[in-house]
Here is the input.
Amino acid sequence: MNSNEIYHLPSLWERIISVWYRHVRVYNSNFLSNAFPPLFEPLIFLAGLGIGLGAYIQTMGAVNYLLFLASGLIVTSAMYTAAFECTYGTFIRLEFDKVYDGMLGAPISPNDLVVGEILFAGTKGMLFSFAVLLVTWATGIISFPLSILAALVGFICGVMFATLSMFITSFVKNINHFNFYFTGLLSPMFFFSGVVFPLENLPKVLQYVAEAIPLTHVVRMARAFCIPGGLNSYLLFDLLYSVVFTVFTGWLALRGLKKRMIV
Amino acid sequence: MNDVVISIKNLHKSFNGLKAVDNLYFDVEKTECFGFLGPNGAGKTTTMKIVYGKSEPDRNQDTIINIFGCNPGKESLKIKSFSGIVPQQDNLDSELNVTDNLYIYCKFYGIGAREAKKRIAELLSFMELEEKAKSSVRELSGGMQRRLTIARALLNKPKLLILDEPTTGLDPQVRHLIWNKLRELKEMGVTILLTTHYMEEAFQICDRIIIMDKGKKILEGNPRHLLAANLERYVMEIYGADKDSASCRAYFDANGIRHEFFMDTLFAYGNDSEELARFGETLKTGDYYLRPSNLEDLFLKVTGRTLNELQ
Here is the structure.
């Protein structure tokens, strides 16, 4: 217990990973209850829509409808898990549990904290996407080997929606206000980003709106990996959009949350 | 002064135009236990937060903040790497058990897994929490949570320990245990900054204190010296004195005894306890209490007895 030790300041990467590790540790400590939703949700979704709706719609464009739908659900599950984690989860850690206050007493900066959390949301998004893939492989809906890469798109999607959600959290003062975000922003996004129906036949205006929405781009990327012959150069644009979106909203989130943590 | 490790000069901090810290200055020597006393809203917690960079002071050219050679504005991470911080409100990770709480912080401090295991065992034993190693944080009593928070702050073997009201709301046993541990840490060479409302705490463990009010420093010094220099040795409290206040006042005035009224109690101060007692016996009510003066009397003398809007 002497204090003649040499103090070692962990590197930026070590600090970010230690924040990420904190979340992983918490997630794993409730592993069973946490593993249930990502596996069961896509199952009921596909069963419900597939059996019900699938009886009327066999194909969507040139693609089997269940395959079309499943390839979109890979990313929406990542979107929702990242959004929940970085709104309610972040808000509770920030305001109610004061977990961040504790962490900021250790050699962790607000930036380390936010970036570590965004990476964790990405990881969780990837895990949820992978769970959807497992279900769709098992049920034979998706069989294209390259579809494994759609899980990486789940990571990108998780990170994108983590930055957006944390930006929202940075100015929300009342936890109930997240309802506006989920019902007002994410629900419409779910329907107008090409998950349940293709965008090609929408009115021109709505097509432009869809192109501006982050979810549209990750849906397109995920789907391209699930359907044979789906890859094309347009996906590079989707990737570029995702990177620019992440950097910009990530910067906004960092700026806003830092103001709330250092007063 | 020898070996000053913390030096603060011209420190200002306002929140929405309200001055929380007003031209504060102090120096702390190595291995000193330095206490901050003051009513709620005096600026104690804000000062603590500024020391480790959780709060940013107002921009001011004359402000100097030197914490073991570091400036919290630029080197907050470095300061936190050699400090242990115990905030006013326990902020343990309620989603993790006791050991995991400490283990995660070892990660934050960059302590390797094997060393971490050793440190955790050492500190659980130091804070007498061995039996709770696997308990969830929610199952711990307030005193245990506090001890765990202190254990967490000691993981990196800090040379500076910052404690914001370490014993508020705890029972006497735990309070004494914590004081004891803090004294041990001081012997080991740790410099301690602490805020407290408990005058006895300041008396027990602080080498020097400053009394703050409305963001300003009012008094500074060793608790015993401050008491001797600023206050008579005895206080007599006379309850229900409002009934015959005139006769009391007349007597005190005639004998040159300093006294004051607050609500229904009269406080009379003097260095001669027998003189005060003699007067007490003549009172009709006979309801009085004669005791040595303490830091609380000094505190009330300099910060006033009435509440301010922040309390």
About this structure: Chain B has a mean pLDDT of 90. Chain B has two domains: 4-221, 232-292. The CA atoms of residues 97 and 136 of chain B lie 4 Å apart. The longest strand of chain B covers residues 4-15.
